[in-house]
Amino acid sequence: MIATEKIRIAIAGYGNLGIGVEAGIMQNPDMELIAVFTRRVPESIKIRTQNVPVCRFSDMTEWAGKVDVMILCGGSATDLIWQVPHAAQFFNTVDSFDTHAKIPWFYSAVNEASSSSGHTSIISVGWDPGMFSIARVYSNCILPSGKDYTFWGPGVSQGHSDAIRRISGVVDARQYTIPVDSSVKSVRNGDNPELTVGQKHTRLCYVVAEENADLLRIEKEIKEMPDYFKEYETTIKFISKDDLEKNHSELPHGGFVIRSGVTGRDGKHKQIIEYSLKLESNPGFTANVLLAYARAAYRLSCRSEYGAKTVFDIPPALLSPLPGTELIKRFL
Fold this sequence. Notes:
The protein is of the alpha/beta class. It is built from eleven helices and 14 strands. The strands form three sheets. The chain has a seven-stranded parallel sheet, with helices on both faces. Strands 8-9-10-11 form a four-stranded mixed sheet. A three-stranded antiparallel sheet has the order 7-12-13, sandwiched between helices. A hairpin with a 5-residue loop joins strand 12 (253-263) and strand 13 (269-279). Helix 2 (80-87) runs parallel beside helix 3. The longest helix is centred in the C-terminal third of the chain and has 21 residues, at 282-302. It is globular.
């Protein structure tokens, strides 16, 4: 790829995350938005950036060679799992695929598509997977004797909410992930408890159902959904659309990664590493992480370093718009 004056970004999917990416581009002077792709009627989408076309998702391939990085902003449950391998045949890509159990398979599928077509794809970018993943690796290297704990929330999970919305009869939904307070306290105390996923979190779902929908069926499908709800204590509350818009329109989230370990000849010194996030806007923050990694994907592509990558493969210097000398001066 030949370097361009500004990194030409395209957005595929203009929901909460896509809107966040558009806003984030305005904070990155080395980037510009050149197109938005949607499966909705393009004329129904009103974006904030002037003179940028909104195109049909099916017309995406016509833009091959005109886009430096395609940022895919769909949901993991049914969108990204096929959209990213498809797009990687034509573009450098960045995505936020977050179904942890399926990431190895997803990596292989995207790597095959991007390697064979001469593109660079950075997968599963965000804060978890993403920034939390990096925190886990760093803390394991520093404290080889210890245990890892990741707690999410309290806050709205976009991926889990999207998974609920895909159920027949559901109009809209918000899913709150809530850490179990007693488990958090035990970990921070250095007790190193053995915790199942269900002992670390509970899930609270607010669901707007279609009129006359089978509520028992919807509740059963939610609670039995693998990778999302099956292993957790899940509470489901059916509410009106007005109630959802009034009381659950914001998308806060956050969480923390803890490594509890020991050092010393006899392992007598407890050591705790904790990395935490407190987010007023989950999609707004995730969007900015995607943009930083879009910069890295573009730079790797310019070096002809093709194939799928993860956050583990990307040095911090590739994420920053600053030159190496300035990074050393400011942050080292």
